[in-house]
Amino acid sequence: MNIDFARQQMVRQQVRAWEVYDSDILSVLQQVPREQFVPSGFEPIAFADTEIPIGHGQYMMTPMLEGRLLQSLRLKKSDNVLEIGTGSGFLAACLGRLARSVTSIEIFADFLDSAAASLEDTGIHNVELLSMDATRELPDQHYDAIAVTGSMPVFDPRLVMALKPAGRLFVVVGEAPVMDARLVERTGENDWRSESLFETELAPLLNVVEPTAFSF
């Protein structure tokens, strides 16, 4: 397999075709070696338009969804980012290339170990990995942006409270087969606005408990 050609085709035919035009995002997806973050044996489909199983019933997002997520957050080099759900570590690597620092939290210890090794191998050193269940707690700080890599049936406003003023949050809300990808921005101490971006389907966060019904 010609890896460079496959990576370029992924960006051109999948990511750009789904309205991801930000040159920084496209550059990062071309530079970060996705094939080094997939489980052994899955390298031939590292750039395919498919969710790749990584263990524990979890999957990597498709490249298209990764691209849209990254673009929606409008990241700056000065941003501090929280990722909920480390998984393979690939998205954390992309976030690390786009922002000043990334804190990525994960339930499964083997995911953290694998992600740490892949991040080290690719020379990305601004990602902190923590063992933490986001349905129970979040790091005790505020972030410029938050990326949630699993869906939740109903929006959890705790996530907004973890944002700095003007912070952005990407989250997928709803239940299969149709879910809503949303960008939520904190506009004040107790205020925020939400924008529906597109419909998709994403596996739910583990241990997610449906909170009190909340309406945008």
Short characterization:
About 25% of the residues lie in helices and about 25% in strands. The chain is an alpha/beta fold and about 220 residues long.
User: What would the CATH topology of the domain at 64-200 be?
Assistant: Rossmann fold
Q: What order do the SSEs take from the amino end to the carboxyl end, as H and E? A: HHEEHEHEHEEHEEE
Low-confidence spans: pLDDT under 50, at least 5 residues? none
Class computed from helices, strands and strand pairing: alpha/beta
Quote the distance from N terminus to C terminus.
46 Å
Quickly count the helices.
6
Number of E-type strands: 9
Helix content: 25-40%
Topology (elements, then pairings):
Elements: H1 3-15, H2 23-31, E1 53-55, E2 58-59, H3 63-72, E3 80-84, H4 90-98, E4 101-106, H5 109-121, E5 127-131, E6 143-148, H6 158-161, E7 163-175, E8 178-186, E9 192-200
Parallel strand pairs: 3-4, 3-6, 4-5, 6-7
Antiparallel strand pairs: 1-2, 7-8, 8-9
Helix pairs in contact: 1-3
Task: Describe the fold and architecture.
The protein has 216 residues and is an alpha/beta fold. The protein has a domain at 64-200: Rossmann fold (3-Layer(aba) Sandwich). Helices cover 27% and strands 27% of the residues. The chain is built from six helices and nine strands, in the order H-H-E-E-H-E-H-E-H-E-E-H-E-E-E. The protein has helices at residues 3-15, 23-31, 63-72, 90-98, 109-121, 158-161; strands spanning 53-55, 58-59, 80-84, 101-106, 127-131, 143-148, 163-175, 178-186, 192-200. Strands 5-4-3-6-7-8-9 form a seven-stranded mixed β-sheet. A two-stranded antiparallel sheet has the order 1-2. Strand 7 and strand 8 form a beta hairpin. The longest helix has 13 residues, at 3-15.
